[in-house]
Design brief:
Helix content is about 25%, strand content about 25%. The chain has about 450 residues and is of the alpha+beta class. The strands form five sheets. Strands 13-12-14-15-9-16-21-20-19 form a nine-stranded mixed beta sheet, with helices on both faces. The chain has a four-stranded antiparallel beta sheet with strand order 1-8-6-3, with no helix packed on it. A four-stranded antiparallel beta sheet has the order 5-4-2-7, with no helix packed on it. The chain has two domains: about 90 residues, OB fold (Dihydrolipoamide Acetyltransferase, E2P); about 300 residues, 3-Layer(aba) Sandwich (Peroxisomal Thiolase, Chain A, domain 1). The protein has eleven helices and 21 strands.
Length: about 450
């Protein structure tokens, strides 16, 4: 096998809803044998059928885990293989892929009973904040190698960004989401078992399906709760909080994990100066709760205007660009000038409107935590919002624009400096064009 090969487990495919196991009557391979995709690995007999277990990829047998004429549960691995077929990496993790048919789908009966209850008026709170940033720091100087006609001073002046974090090879959006989620749950004083819904905002999912939320659910070891992905581009985390509030107010959930995870570095055209200097990778998370006191959510604002649908776009789904050629542009593209005008007005309008809905004067707002889109946009928006620019928190100089993860990452950064009862506004603009805002009393 090549140096890029990896080991993985294979499971027998379930044959019927009532069956839990099958018997391997004959192996056609042994330890050390090479095999091809579609080759018969074993003959199998279940209670209701006899079938051939075929190889899903090319590979080499590392070891047989079940002897001939022995039974194997559908949720237990039967053979360990080594392969270089990357499609096996992106499968549902094995623990979820081969769960016993008696356990899947498993409905959480407590959640079902909760959903029968009449919705109640509830105070909705934000609990702990978690974030994850990749280790690799990418300074402007590294990217300027492809852009010799401009310099660092120009990039900082136009974007406000000095460096950003990019994920290492092999790291996935769900990995970043996992680390941010674990931190948020721990800081909330909750157990993983207290989470009864998961919402993941991402424009760079692990796969088109299953959802990154379901992959995260498996990594966290949670079963039988709602889990879904949401794509509102850079507005996604705030959209996710709004959906979480809806789940709580409708009686479906008590504690909702809302995560944003973005891996934009893999989908950038390194020769496009409109995008390559802007984006970083990272994840942020929080728990939205209807049962535990925390930072009180007051008002939200959501809207979208498809008139700006071409201002920010990417045609290819996922977090990587395939090596084979495409008949469409696979990279992120931005109409910078149009976005600047729209975002500046939208940011300032959201701040003014949320302050008004919350009964605050602009001077009452202690912090505005905006989507870290671009330093010039945020400065221009501050001038129109009525809130002094020094109350707008920015960390994009160190982490870049992390799309929907930027607000929770910034919030985790500033959290220690926020005082009890501080009045905070979150605001964002994203592709679509989507717009969102949230007011919180800390």
């Amino acid at each position: 096998m090549s140096k890029e090969s990896f080991k993985t487990m294979l499971f027998l495919p379930s044959q019927a809803a009532a069956e839990t196991e099958a018997t391997i009557t004959r192996w056609h391979v042994k330890q050390g044998d090479s095999f091809k995709k579609g080759q018969i690995l074993a003959e199998v007999e279940s209670a209701k059928s006899t079938f051939e277990f075929e190889a899903p990829c090319d590979g080499v047998v590392v070891q047989l885990l079940v002897a001939e004429n022995k039974s194997a549960a559908y949720d237990a691995a039967v053979i360990e293989i080594e392969t270089s077929d990357n499609s096996l990496k992106n499968e549902i993790p094995s623990a979820a892929a081969a769960v016993s048919v008696l356990e899947t789908p498993q409905m959480n009966t407590a959640i079902l009973e909760k959903q029968k209850d009449e919705p109640q008026i509830r105070t909705i709170s934000m609990l702990g904040i978690g974030c994850y940033l990749p280790e690799r720091i990418v300074p402007n100087s590294e990217l300027l190698v492809e852009h010799q006609d401009i310099n660092e001073e120009y990039i900082i002046g136009v974007t406000g960004i000095k460096e950003r974090r990019w994920a290492k090879q092999g790291e996935k959006p769900s990995d970043m989401a996992y680390f941010a989620s674990k931190q948020a749950i721990e800081k909330s004083g909750l157990q993983v078992s207290d989470i009864d819904a998961i919402i993941v905002s991402t424009t760079t999912p692990d796969a088109v399906m299953p959802s990154t939320a379901c992959i995260l659910q498996e990594k966290l070891g949670i079963r039988g709760i709602p889990a879904l992905d949401l794509n509102a581009a850079c507005s996604g985390w705030l959209y996710g909080i709004s959906v979480a509030r809806g789940l709580i107010l409708s009686g479906i959930a008590d504690n909702v994990l809302v995560v944003a995870t973005e891996m934009q570095s893999r989908v950038l055209d390194k020769k496009d100066r409109n995008t390559v200097f802007l984006f970083g990778d990272g994840a942020g998370a929080t728990i939205i709760s209807g049962v535990k006191p925390g930072h009180k959510i007051l008002h939200e604002l959501l809207t979208a205007d498809a008139a700006g649908i071409h201002m920010a776009r990417r045609s290819l789904p996922g977090y990587e660009i395939p090596a084979n050629s495409m008949d469409f542009d696979p990279f992120i593209r931005l109409d910078g000038k149009a976005l600047f005008r729209f975002a500046t007005e939208s940011f300032s309008s959201v701040v003014r409107e949320l302050a008004k809905k919350s009964g605050w004067e602009p001077e009452d707002v202690r912090w505005v935590v905006p989507h870290q889109a671009n330093g010039r946009i945020i400065k221009a928006a501050a001038q129109k919002s009525g809130v002094p620019f020094e109350r707008f928190y920015l960390n994009l100089d160190r982490v870049g624009n992390t799309s929907s993860a930027s607000i929770p990452i910034a919030l985790a950064d500033i959290e220690r400096g926020i005082q009890k009862k501080d009045r905070i506004i979150f605001c964002t603009v994203g592709a679509g064009i989507t717009v969102a805002g949230l007011s919180v009393e800390w």
